[in-house]
Amino acid sequence: MNILSIAGSDPSGGAGIQADLKAIAANGGYGMAVITALTAQNTRGVSGVQAIDGDFVTAQLETLSADVRIDAVKIGMLANQEIIGAVAAWLDTVNAPVVLDPVMVATSGDALLEDAAALHPLLARATVITPNTAELGALLGEAAAQDWELVLEQARRLASAHDVLVLAKGGHLAGAQCPDALVSAAGVLAEFSSPRLATKNTHGTGCTLSSALATRFAATGDWATALEQAKGYMLRAIGAADELQVGSGHGPVHHFVDFFGAADPMAAWWEDIAPLRAGIDELEFIVQLADGSLEREKFEYYLAQDALYLQRYAQVLAQASALAPELDSQRFWAKGAGEILEGELQLHRSHLVEGLANPSATTLNYVNHLSSCNSSYPELIAAILPCYWLYQDIGKRLAAANYEGHPYGDWLQTYASEEFDESTAQAIGMVRAAWKLADPAQRERMRQAFLRSSEHELAFFAQAHAESVEFSTA
Ligand SMILES: Nc1ncnc2c1ncn2[C@@H]1O[C@H](COP(=O)(O)OP(=O)(O)OP(=O)(O)O)[C@@H](O)[C@H]1O
Ligand SMILES: Cc1ncc(COP(=O)(O)O)c(N)n1
């Protein structure tokens, strides 16, 4: 997908053309750039602007579109009326979706456009306009809204006046959430909210979001999907902004967080439990389960405990869904809960001759640990993770040991499916995403929750043989 940014240059690389090209590439597009203005700028502010001649902006645009197919256009800083006229005239000659970020003022407070009203001829030519609250007010000739209801109301009026979609952004409001909504003349089409991250490094968020949105729309053809994806990317990029050390003012977001973010914490956690994983492999229960020599009575004891555990585990997944900060993870954990109740539990019950036993102390310890994490989403999903990850890992080896006529063959197969691999990868991804947004103390609590659950897994596998478990990763 070829995405064109028409915008100003920010030498500090956090906003403008430089941010756009990074965000386009990070979202899978091929970025192109027509420069409207040079700025002398750093993370503390703008000290000078030199606009490009309107004729030369036209020359750049026409030369480009004479040769290259353009799948989406993102427009940023336009500096003055002459450039706005040049871009408006060129837009009449192309047929591509246009995301217009009506850049007027930098995060630092410096003016980047002479007059808000000058943008009016461009508004009807855009497909989506992405004003922040100040820009939204200025485009309507009103004061900036201070609450979300009024932002949505203003966005609806702007959409109606110019027959465009408006992306209303709540990043500048007070509150723990940063809501964004796609608004048409008819009202809100889609709304996505994310937690507000505590960082001063938000230089270029508007440029980055609008470029990601244009790129994701070119790829998906659906604005709501594009916004959901762009917003998720934005949150990850802001979440990793403090990893970069650029300037002393409002630093940039980490555009390539998905490629070069900090060393993967999940790999470190997995290493932390390496001795424990080896311990599970050596348990009599696992060895005998693999070779088929496990007494049925012991298998049934394990299954009965596991059925009791899974019932509670499904409730814990449902709680994770209830706490999830956005739609994808909300859906994922709810689906996991549903699959356990409809699938795994059935399998267990099909092996059990009699009704369910009482939970053992080992089982209770494990579910109590899960419950103790259930007021914090990041800790809860960290505690949930070992049940996915360890089973997927052991499942691979057990499936390899399976043979025709194995007494527990169907059970050995359950945790070695591609679907289970996929769910495990997603669960790891969700914990990783939550970790990136967490502060250091919370990250450590997440790690502890993960380690404790891993220990409970070991004890759980050991309980049918009543082996004493002295292992601790603490
Ligand atoms: N501290 C934050 N935590 C999470 N998301 C944020 C934060 N600040 C901004 N965002 C998000 O970044 C995106 C850009 O929003 P914002 O309202 O800041 O736009 P903008 O004002 O055009 O950007 P800029 O401040 O760079 O000019 C929005 O999705 C917003 O929710
Ligand atoms: C060249 C240029 N374009 C746009 C912005 C606005 O970005 P932000 O409001 O995030 O500073 C900027 N600072 N510089």
From TrEMBL:
UniProt domain Pyridoxamine kinase/Phosphomethylpyrimidine kinase: residue ranges: 10-254
Entries under Pfam families matching the protein: Phos_pyr_kin, TENA_THI-4
Positions of the Thiaminase-2/PQQC domain: 284-463
Alphabetical list of InterPro entries matching this protein: Haem_Oase-like_multi-hlx, HMP/HMP-P_kinase_dom, PM/HMP-P_kinase-1, Ribokinase-like, Thiaminase-2/PQQC
One BP term from GO: thiamine biosynthetic process
UniProt pathway: Cofactor biosynthesis; thiamine diphosphate biosynthesis; 4-amino-2-methyl-5-diphosphomethylpyrimidine from 5-amino-1-(5-phospho-D-ribosyl)imidazole: step 3/3
Molecular function GO labels: ATP binding; hydroxymethylpyrimidine kinase activity; phosphomethylpyrimidine kinase activity
Keyword Kinase included in the entry's annotation: yes
Cellular component, GO, one term: cytosol
CDD domains: HMPP_kinase, TenA_C-like
Catalysed reaction, written as an equation: 4-amino-5-hydroxymethyl-2-methylpyrimidine + ATP = 4-amino-2-methyl-5-(phosphooxymethyl)pyrimidine + ADP + H(+); 4-amino-2-methyl-5-(phosphooxymethyl)pyrimidine + ATP = 4-amino-2-methyl-5-(diphosphooxymethyl)pyrimidine + ADP
Domain of life according to the entry: Bacteria
Record-linked SUPFAM superfamilies: Heme oxygenase-like, Ribokinase-like
This protein's UniProt keywords: ATP-binding, Kinase, Nucleotide-binding, Thiamine biosynthesis, Transferase
PANTHER family to which the protein is assigned, alphabetical: HYDROXYMETHYLPYRIMIDINE_PHOSPHOMETHYLPYRIMIDINE KINASE THI20-RELATED, PHOSPHOMETHYLPYRIMIDINE KINASE
Role of this protein: Catalyzes the phosphorylation of hydroxymethylpyrimidine phosphate (HMP-P) to HMP-PP, and of HMP to HMP-P.
Protein's UniProt name: Bifunctional hydroxymethylpyrimidine kinase/phosphomethylpyrimidine kinase
